[in-house]
Design goal:
The structure is a homodimer. The first copy, chain A, contains 10 helices and 13 strands. By secondary structure, chain A is of the alpha+beta class. At the A-B interface, helix 1, helix 2, strand 2, strand 3 and strand 4 of A face helix 1, strand 2, strand 3, strand 4 and strand 5 of B. Chains A, B: It holds the Pfam family AIRS.
């Protein structure tokens, strides 16, 4: 596979990309027609769209095309899992410069395919156009398998807050990469390729989760959306977080309290959910706080106090 | 509504955009959560994604934001109709520069909403990020209502080829605009805001259409995909096309055979389908040719001969 996407042309590129795909029994009609057809056994379909732009959401010098594919897919598939649904399909809207080597979108597609497979889904279609900046728009679909969707608005005072997946690993990896290092590898890898706990999403729906979201902007920020939607206050317990030694070491090396990464680091796409108190939770869920009656802002506190450095990103903010 | 999207910020912009939306009974959960939930009564969902970029697929000096919204939605909703499905939902991935006035994405959203409404669908979610070039990635979903999907691969020798919707109007409008004119208004409007015959899609599935596609790259080019997928040859009859007098007049004025626009003009998003010979078709369908056994290329001919100027676009071609 040689040359640029401009040399290969639109139809050649589409052929190259679709030739890499695999399918699942849910895919009734894959790429190549006006639209794809996917089963929706539940008679409802869950759908979410995310957009990633080079230089903003990923860097070609930090991540391979394959890793960007894995990460782009993961981010969107996690949204489906966070509703309590099983991912079924991905659609890709891709903008690529004409001078980009064909290997880049090809390896991106390999990454999308493999991450979809981890989640049980398949890439079923998309669109490729030429433009100056690599832009990746992904839509993920999923099936609720008879469960009610788990929204952000169902948390009730008295519920416990529990999390599953990695917390702060991507942020720690980002801190390492930003300073020009390539290790510790586990954290760099976590930044390049998050591992959302897909199966925990539908399982949480089965466990009676009252609310759920995936952590993309940071735990405190994303729980802020839950608190706002549910009209409750959420208090987290700092001691409930288990900071890995290696993460503490990185924190010392770069002068950052690692709890900051855990509480405000996004992109690990862990799942945070609320459950009725007393509900028996599998070991993968760690209880980190509780839901309380609404009070004045801030709606999310740590040990009863505002988390001063709490954040998340405003993608249009000027300080980025 | 004043200021730029950068001043309003990500969450402010999302609030502004979602406040403009309407809903339908198919929308179980709209924007504001990790994902939307839409009914899929047929137990299958039809899904298609398209990407439009400023300067490439639309121009802000030629089209209002509202018209770009109508057109972007139409293009994608037509793909759903072309499968024989009823559109249910749109998701929007939007890239906007920070310095863009908020009115632009707001009016874009109005256009998306209104076109979705024409097709019976609703905008249910999306993502907005900051970037240098306005980029619009739309995913449309639809329901087959018990019909088999009408693909591009089912045309059989002996079938008739029929079309419904506008042909060449957008291309004639483009020719007018390219020369700095703003009239005849009907053609300019057709370019700015196509009117796909949404209801004809599911109706064609009910009429037993053997293949169908929407015309986005031009009739000859899109029928080429049908011929290739169905392994047949398609012959069109030039005399079957009714060229409006006004289109002929524009052709004379700009030195273009208007049949060229009819045969190769895309973006009207008319529907072209094949039906078993003898099938009684409603008046909205005009028979324009017939399906024959496969032969050497070209697979699509006009009165038995290759259409020399036949085209469509290769979005990565260098001559654009």
């Amino acid at each position: 596979m040689k040359g640029t996407v401009g040399e290969l042309g639109e139809f050649g590129l589409i052929r190259e990309l679709t030739s890499r795909l695999t399918t699942t029994p849910a895919v009734r009609l894959g790429p190549g027609d006006d639209a794809a057809v996917i089963t929706a056994p539940d008679r409802r379909v869950v759908a979410s769209t995310d957009v990633l732009i080079e230089g903003r959401h990923f860097r070609r010098d930090w991540s391979t095309a394959y890793d960007v594919g894995r990460k782009s897919a993961a981010q969107n598939l996690a949204d489906i899992a966070a509703m309590g649904a099983v991912p079924t399909a991905l659609l890709l809207g891709l903008v690529v410069p004409a001078e980009l080597p064909v290997t880049w979108p090809a390896e991106l597609m390999d990454g999308l395919r493999d991450e979809a497979q981890v989640a049980g889904a398949a890439v079923v279609g998309g669109d490729v156009v030429r433009g100056d900046v690599i832009t990746i728009a992904i839509t993920a679909l999923g099936d609720l398998q008879g469960h009610d969707p788990v929204t952000r608005s169902g948390a009730r005072p008295g519920d416990v807050v529990a999390v599953t997946g990695w917390l702060g690993w991507s942020a720690a990896g980002h801190a390492v990469l930003s300073r020009g290092f390539r290790s510790p590898r586990a954290f760099v890898e976590a930044h390049r390729r998050p591992e959302p706990p897909y199966q925990a999403g539908p399982a949480a729906a089965g466990l009676g989760a009252t609310s759920m979201t995936d952590i993309s902007d940071g735990l405190v920020a994303d729980l802020g959306h839950v608190a706002e939607s549910s009209k409750v206050r959420i208090d987290l317990h700092a001691a409930a977080f288990d900071i890995p030694t290696q993460m503490s070491d990185i924190g010392k090396a770069v002068g950052v309290d690692p709890l900051q990464w855990v509480l405000t680091g996004g992109e690990d796409h862990a799942l945070v959910a609320t459950f009725p108190r007393g509900r028996q939770l599998p070991a993968r869920w760690r209880v980190i706080g509780e839901v309380q009656a609404m009070s004045a802002t801030p709606q999310v506190t740590v040990d009863g106090k505002p988390w001063l450095a709490a954040g998340g990103w405003d993608h249009f903010g000027s300080d980025e």
